Amino acid sequence: MNVLRVPAVLFAALAVMNFLKPFELQAEHGFVFLGRRLSGAPNAIASLTFATFLALYAESLWRLRARALPMAMAYAGYVCVNLALFRMRSPEIAAVNSLYGFTYIAIAAGTSLGTVLLLIREGVGAAEPPYRNALRAFALLFGLMALSNILKQFVYTDTTGFVLLGQRLSGAANVYASLGFAAFLALYASSIWMEKRRALVLGAGYAVYVLANLTLWNFRKPDGADAPMLFAIPYLIIAIGVSCGAATMLYRVKERLEA
Length: 259
Fold this sequence. Notes:
- By secondary structure, the protein is mostly helical.
- The protein has 2 domains: 1-128, no CATH class; 129-259, no CATH class.
- The chain is 71% helix and 3% strand.
- The strands form 2 sheets. The protein has a two-stranded antiparallel ribbon. It has a two-stranded antiparallel sheet with strand order 3-4.
- The longest helix is centred in the middle third of the chain and has 25 residues, at 98-122.
């Protein structure tokens, strides 16, 4: 039996669990997205989206499809960030359930990262150009960011409104901006996945926007919005690294992009 069918079954089971989360009656069982436990409409949207992704991921692993590798890379990155953010944003839970928490982190991170290593060892996706797997992983991460922006219109906490040029929005402005950027990121993600030339322009523009937004936020952020260095530094590295890294890679392979 192919060893990759083991994680395929595990991710298929996780897809079923996520599909059932919108029907949970207890708030503590809501979907955890980027370190925050959701409820209501955000919980339904995020859990059903991830259920669909995990079902496709499981099918790709089972059939050893080339797309399984970028899906694994993106999902492993998301899992590690999600676990870290949850522990930082819910210290009271981490303190009460420390043994369970560390065990859960070890299993979740180990399974997601281990699947990436198994795919590489088995040569899945090896026939693809090396840049393609990385670009498609970036595409999935931008799709994740599009989902995050879709959820911002619900403002499921007081500190998650969309930040536009360093200013946190609320009300109708938050809805329009978050949905507008969600559409932009969805277009960017699909353009990267299909290796369209427009992805290079979209990527360059988005990288410049991210740098400007982070800089302006430092001057415009409201009182009390300072994040701990333990959170701020990794956030800056990820935000700048993903946006600029994708734009740089697109530029390096620009001759291979289609019109």
